[in-house]
Amino acid sequence: MEISTLKEKLYCLVNLTAKRFDEYVDLGKIRQREYLYVKRVVLGLRYEDRSLVEGSKFEIRNELEPSGVHELVGMIKKEQLFRDIAVFIAKVCNTNEGQAAFWLNQFLIKILKYYYRKELGREKLSYLIDLFVNELMGKAIIWHVEAWLMGINLDVPKIELDEGVVLRRPSKEDFEIMYPIHVLPLYKPIIPSRVPDAVLEINRREKLTPYLYPYKERVIFALQLYKPCSLYEVYARWKPEAIIQVGGERASMQLLSPTFRCTLTKEDERKLQEFIKIIAPKIPLDEKRGVLELKSYLGIALTRYRDALLKPEPISNKIAYATFGLEALYLKGEEKQELSHRLAQRVSKVMYLLNRASNPKCVYKDVKRAYGIRSAFVHGSHKELLDRDLFDKIVEYLRLSILMFIQISVKKDWLVELIDDALIDEQSNKELKELLDKNIITLGG
Question: What share of the chain is helix, strand, coil (3-state, %, to 5)?
Answer without folding.
Answer: 50, 20, 30
